[in-house]
Amino acid sequence: xxxxxxxxxxxxxxxxxxxxxxxxxxxxxxxxxxxxxxxxxxxxxxxxxxxxxxxxxxxxxxxxxxxxxxxxxxxxxxxxxxxxxxxxxxxxxxxxxxxxxxxxxxxxxxxxxxxxxxxxxxxxxxxxxxxxxxxxxxxxxxxxxxxxxxxxxxxxxxxxxxxxxxxxxxxxxxxxxxxxxxxxxxxxxxxxxxxxxxxxxxxxxxxxxxxxxxxxxxxxxxxxxxxxxxxxxxxxxxxxxxxxxxxxxxxxxxxxxxxxxxxxxxxxxxxxxxxxxxxxxxxxxxxxxxxxxxxxxxxxxxxxxxxxxxxxxxxxxxxxxxxxxxxxxxxxxxxxxxxxxxxxxxxxxxxxxxxxxxxxx
Length: 361
What we know:
44% of the residues lie in helices and 16% in strands. The protein is α+β, with helices and mostly antiparallel strands.
């Protein structure tokens, strides 16, 4: 199966799990998921964030973070800082550049191009350079200025509820309330979010690739009504997966792997403990007998770090780790060198699991 098709199928299968209709036949350009209708606050919004989390976990692109904010919080913040109403969207566009520009440059743009005073710019800077979790939401609910703004209070109240639901979904640790997230599109009316990869390309021997976010979305309660002849309001929240950006990342990593791989070895048999040479030899013999290309370092007690470095230098994709706890539990810990993800596999299933992963790579 082509890599592009795998990525799209992962996205489609996740959408199906969450009740998407009309996609029984693969739709290879499908990348959006939307929930329309009048529902209780933050329930569909939390599900959209859960979907992004599921997809990025499935694709194993590396560590990631989902940033969230609320346009009502932004507008309330601009208001209490003294930004004129007619400059909200222009300032919003400047704030949205903070990830690509330093605060010094963003501040200068606000003052030089947008015409706000240095004092107003500094007040904005004090807010937008903050990020955190629900504790930051609670802190801002007590902020002397923001607590006097109705829009900001509504947005912060919904964000607090959102974090409660994200905790129940088990993904709150991957979510960051980031006051610099602005998403400059005017049609967003509430919660906004954007997923970014955290893994440093240099760690994997990759060249820097400016891919930006790999998923994004938010609430847009007023957009559908603009196209309704009767102007009926239809609350909506949705997300978009950056399929092409993800494909670019995967494609680049495949090319990099081809360049740096100095061996056809599929798995290194390793241990993090001393006196496990015999167990490593037993395991590697099983892998060889099954036709799996395996290696181990020719030392009685190699350091675990050296074993991992060897995999990274030679391009070995998997590490089969055995130790005292693994022996006791009857498992082998299988580690992906690229993503650093580790899972325990039953000893009797390790050959099948390695073969499966190799057939999919």
